[in-house]
Design a protein that fits this description.
Layout: H1 29-33, H2 54-65, H3 79-91, H4 102-108, E1 115-119, H5 136-139, H6 150-157, H7 162-168, E2 179-183, E3 193-199, E4 204-209, E5 214-219, E6 221-222, E7 232-241, E8 245-247, E9 262-264, E10 275-279, E11 285-287, E12 304-305, H8 308-315, E13 323-327
Parallel strand pairs: 3-13, 11-12
Antiparallel strand pairs: 1-2, 3-4, 4-5, 6-12, 7-10, 7-13, 8-9, 10-11
Length: 328
């Protein structure tokens, strides 16, 4: 994957700080690939910056590669990024404080450019739908709840927010034959998960192997005040990919004015995304989402919600009988 003439972090030192005015710099693939980190703050700025930060983009990509998911790669500092740093520290057996100290940074760095060129293919433009209505009754009329654009499809494939994808490619039409810049996240982790620990207070799911070694950490939406998640210990019953979704207002929740049972087709923009990991607690599961940017930012209806790419990775490492513990 390496770019022939990629310039890595040695040539440009950028200080990661929001305490004073910053010198404007172009936001592009080179800026991301050459970004370094120093003085990483532990809290986000009071107001969201006007554009993504190249340094944070690179950091999110490196964390993704290391198995500490930052959720959607968007270039902004937030709680999911701080949790990912802490998750990486836990994966490496380092003191866990969510701060990017020199030891953690050394373990995180690699020589593969964070952003690289990608040529859009004809297949990338296939199986798109015009739009996804909010109302479940309208969704139930659709044959599939697919992606609505090439940008959305590629954003999910490369774990990117659509806004970041467009910021890196401001003149792109996202059409077949066009070459664009994309994030290069990590390959899906492999291994056998024996226990999943769902930590409600921090909004995370920890996947452990036999013996207690940590395999991966994911940011998660875990229930809400009105629809809390289960408590105690449960087991995985099975995994369904591209699942259809049965909406039953008497069992699930009230969506709009819908009071009848509805069957919704599968797809990445379906209510439970691309994967449903079924739990022994009836009606509850670990699943994907059509809105990855909202992970751990808005509540769920009691289930554990991950990005589609994170739940796909987790699904590849679990089998029926895996323990799922809900803890505070």
């Amino acid at each position: 994957m390496a770019m022939k003439h990629a310039v890595l972090c040695q040539s440009l030192l950028i200080t990661l700080t929001f305490c004073g005015p910053a010198i404007a710099a172009p936001f592009d693939a080179q800026a991301v690939n050459t970004a370094s980190f120093e003085g990483l703050p532990t809290e986000a700025p009071p107001q969201k910056p006007n554009e993504p930060d190249a340094r944070i983009v690179r950091l999110q990509i490196l964390l993704d590669r290391a198995g500490a998911s930052p959720g959607v790669i968007d270039g902004y500092l937030g709680s999911n990024l701080i949790k990912a740093i802490a998750g990486f520290e836990a994966l490496r057996g380092l003191p866990v404080d969510g701060k990017l100290d020199p030891e953690a940074l050394r373990g995180l760095m690699d020589d593969v450019p964070a952003v690289q060129a990608y040529a859009i293919t004809a297949d990338d433009a296939k199986d798109l739908v015009d739009s996804i209505p909010k109302d479940y009754a309208e969704q139930a009329k659709m044959e599939r709840l697919g992606y609505t654009s090439v940008a959305e499809k590629l954003g999910e494939r490369f774990h990117m927010d659509i806004g970041l994808l467009k910021a890196l490619n401001p003149t792109a039409a996202f059409a077949p034959g066009e070459t664009i810049a994309v994030a290069i996240p990590g390959s899906a982790k492999t291994g056998a998960v024996k226990t999943i620990e769902v930590r409600r207070r921090s909004g995370e799911a920890f996947a452990f192997a036999e013996g207690g070694s940590l395999l991966a950490v994911y940011p998660a939406t875990i229930g809400s005040e009105g629809s809390p998640s289960p408590t105690g210990t449960h087991k995985i019953q099975g995994v369904s990919r591209m699942p259809t979704y049965t909406y039953n207002p008497k069992i699930n929740f009230q969506q709009g004015g819908n009071r009848k049972v509805l069957q919704l087709a599968g797809g990445p923009n379906g209510p439970v995304g691309t994967v449903w990991i079924d739990l022994t607690e009836p009606t509850y599961g670990i699943h994907g989402t059509p809105e990855p940017e909202l992970i751990d930012k808005v509540g769920s209806h009691g289930c554990v919600r991950l990005t589609n790419w994170d739940v796909e990775e987790l699904a590849g490492m679990v089998k029926p009988g895996v323990i799922v513990k809900f803890v505070d």
